[in-house]
Design goal:
It is a single chain. The protein is α+β, with helices and mostly antiparallel strands. It has 3 domains: 14-125, PAS domain (Beta-Lactamase); 144-176 and 190-322, no CATH class; 326-498, Heat Shock Protein 90, CATH 3.30.565.10. 46% of the residues lie in helices and 18% in strands. It has helices at 40-46, 65-80, 127-175, 190-211, 217-220, 223-237, 239-242, 246-265, 274-318, 332-350, 369-385, 421-425, 450-460; strands spanning 25-29, 35-38, 86-94, 97-110, 115-125, 328-331, 353-356, 364-367, 396-404, 407-416, 464-471, 489-498. A hairpin with a 5-residue loop joins strand 1 (25-29) and strand 2 (35-38). Helix 6 (223-237) packs antiparallel against helix 8.
Length: 507
Amino acid sequence: MSGDRPRVLLPEDPRDVHLLHLPMGIFVADPDGQLVVCNETARRILGLPEGEVANARIGELHADPAWYRERARAALDAALAGDGFEKAVGHLRIGGDDVYVEEILRAVVDQSSGSAAAIVGCLVDVTAEHEAAEQSRALRLKVEELAFDIGRVLHANTSTLLMVNQTLEAVSQALQPVSSAPSTPASEDPAERLPELARSLARRLERLLAAVDSERRPTVLPLEAWAHLEEQVAMLNEHETRIPVPELRGSTLRTLASAVGAALREAPLGSLPREATREVLRAADELQRGACLAQVLATRQAVVQMDTTLRALRDFITSDVRTRETRKRMPVQQWVREAVAQIGEFAKIAGVALQTQAIDPELEVFGSERELVRALANVLHNAVKYSWRREQGQPWVAIAASATSGSIHVEVENWGVPISADEIARGLVFELGYRGKWSTDRGRLGTGIGLTDALRAARAHGGDVLVSSRPARLTTLPDTHRDYHRQPFLTRVTLRLPLFPPSGRPR
């Protein structure tokens, strides 16, 4: 017998089968399925009483008697062909209960007629294993259905976010300052202009306050209104220290500007110096407009980031229930270009420059375009999200690709939030749902699936993901110092995949 078939030692005389004390059930039946003899284990599995088995037919104990007959005929065919056993999982109906057995049948051939003289069978009760497998299958189907439903919900949410994004874009365009000068440079970040606009309003308000002497003030506005205006001058000049959370400055300045304008409009017509009042109101309107624009753009950035995050989450959840994409050859240039395009709008709104170095057009990989593009887009999304604007002007993310020792290395590097050496060494950055110790800097959103998904896709293609993070400048601080991770880091994530063709370097 071949080595992959089970070996069952049977007695020379089938009538001695009852003497076998084995953990498996053994029986002998005639060609019609009438039991001749069986051991105690088979008797227990088949639910037979003590004593004779003359009235028991093995086929009729099966939920589908025809199934047993088919197996018996297959066992005879196997024996005539020189094979020994026919093995399958049988479904028995014993006393109203379902019992599942691993059933091995062997036909004893009557050499004179070429028909079966008897059927010798072995039974192993696998009911528990079968039920566990069925429960696992049912659970898997439920998970797939749930994943599909979650995918639909997330798709609906991304559609809503798209509408919100388009509305915010229209509002931001309407709030942009209008300049008639053709040589005016591209507008800077509106949030960065707020301190200047606040100080401008403070200066003009100070001049107005100085222009109205103390004797006239009660005839124009209540004294508490004048005191409030003077306090607002101080607040406008010192808002950066008085409002330590940068995200709250825009809304606070907008409220201050609105309050200044409302207070001055309460004054009787002609009671305040006309030109000075006009300048204050103009400066207040500019500050309100600038603060609104900054808030709209910040909200739009958060919406785009949320949209990108939800799309990544949707793709991650539904990756196992979608139709598998046929793998194919793909130029690395195309792979990188498609991933950059997916993150382009988020990078633009975040003010991060995507710098793609020249890529050899002959470099190719082999795999699922959807999976590989999503993996690289996840890495790019993280790099944009965790970039710093501080100290160096516009933040950047650099993308480069090269071939080394039969592998493609696509490197994504950014300047910004650090990843600790411990998180990399312990593989925490790849754990599902894990967000780095420093990743919540400035309230950045995240799900902790980006690198998990990227690693899964890379390894499914025979590759890997490598992460390194180090201080951007030379430092003498030990990594245990409280300020060590408060400085900018250069973080590099490398997607490594087999080069196509696998024989090596470029044609």
